[in-house]
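Customer ticket, subject: "Can you confirm the structure for Aspartyl/glutamyl-tRNA(Asn/Gln) amidotransferase subunit B?"

Message body: Hello, I'm evaluating your service for our small team and ran a test protein. I'd like someone to confirm that this is what the system normally returns, since I don't have a reference to compare against.
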Amino acid sequence: MSREYETVIGLEVHVELATKTKIFCGCKTDFGGAPNTHTCPICTGMPGALPILNKKVVEYAMAVGLATNCKITKHSKFDRKNYFYPDNPQNYQISQLYLPICRDGKVEIEVNGTKKSIGIHEIHMEEDAGKLVHDDWEDVSIVDYNRSGVPLIEIVSEPDMRSSDEVIAYLEKLRQTIQYLGASDCKLNEGSMRADVNISVRKVGQKNFGTRTEMKNLNSFKAISHAIEGETKRQIEIIEANKEVVQETRRWDDNKESSKSMRSKEDAKDYRYFPDPDLPPIYISDEWIEKVRKSQPELREEKLERYKKEFDISEYDATLITESKHLADLFEQTSDICKKPKKVANFILGELLRLLKEKEMDDSEIDFSVEHFAKLIELFDSGVINSTVSKQVFGEIFLNDVDPEKYIKEKNLMVVDDNGTLERIIDEVLEANPKSVADYKEGKKKAIGFLVGQTMKAMSGKAEPSKVNQILTKKLQ
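Agent reply: Thanks for trying us out. I re-ran your input and got the following:
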């Protein structure tokens, strides 16, 4: 970006809440399912069907508001946002314009060692729309209403961000906080967390904001980052050509690395908002707010401080583990069983993260039992298996949740601690590799590494490498 300009960015983040049923009816919110099977007259907008508010939606919204330092609106209500679109069955969306449930919050982010506070203008509750499926072969679009009526909160930030790095840090902080609360799984690939990005540029030092555009269709942090960079460049080029940026909604195409105009940007008046006549106002008492506040779980910052005091792990390891609620839960539950937090942390940050990356899995997909994981740690720590075998067995636990004790016995993977057997195998290795023996005696000490490897291979990995090294060194001298 040109140093003459700065980018001004605000976000509208939509989060699907983790309730079992929809916001105004009893239909399931499960992701997937055959089209139009999680529906009823209410969420498909049938005439005369009356909505009933799901209390858990209000509590999740309050929980997110409290965790992001918002003020809770004690007298809140729902409004109708009127617009026609095929996936909007009522021709209006039930949302909150005039009295959103949360206002005036903030979250703190850190980018390159610098901390910054990002303001939250409001958080409001609303219902999700259905999903249009486009069939290019038949040249038709069909509608799946399973998602219609799934509860959402929309988190509207202030225009406080100035770079894609700050945006990603803000989104990661929100996702982490909401996951710790259990309010949503925040899976971008399933659409349970989505972001619309409002971008404008202005000359450095200019006080007034430039004309903003809204970028949609952003379903990954990578796409968001690329869209910000691409739109910033596009707007600067328009300004440099002495033209005016048009306020509009644009759709980002991640494959083409470019955006295209969807429609001119509507204002609130274009949606003809009015209070929903079928839903009574919501009154939130001080007692209800306090009840939600007291039920809040330990969030990341608190957990990190406790880990540094309670567990024998480094601050660096504690920071990495607590970045994910799933990893933090796995670490705590396993450590609670085996009482060896250092070794648990090493496995999580080593083998587990490697396997997740290799299998292209999210840590939310981990489904092996903590009992099996803890038992593996105990077997390794007591010397029943060595490091190489422990990694092999962990791979089986990761993929198939095997009982490590049974697996080790079935595959005969226990460490061979018989000195006679070890010495016999080592003698055979020395006899078969005279060049490596000569290299070692000539001062090439690294040759012993090859001999250790050959011995481990002959022992099918069932020896303790340090013991093999010790016996080899003695024999070579």
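A couple of notes from the result: The two ends are 65 Å apart (CA to CA). The chain has a mean pLDDT of 90. Feel free to reply with more questions.
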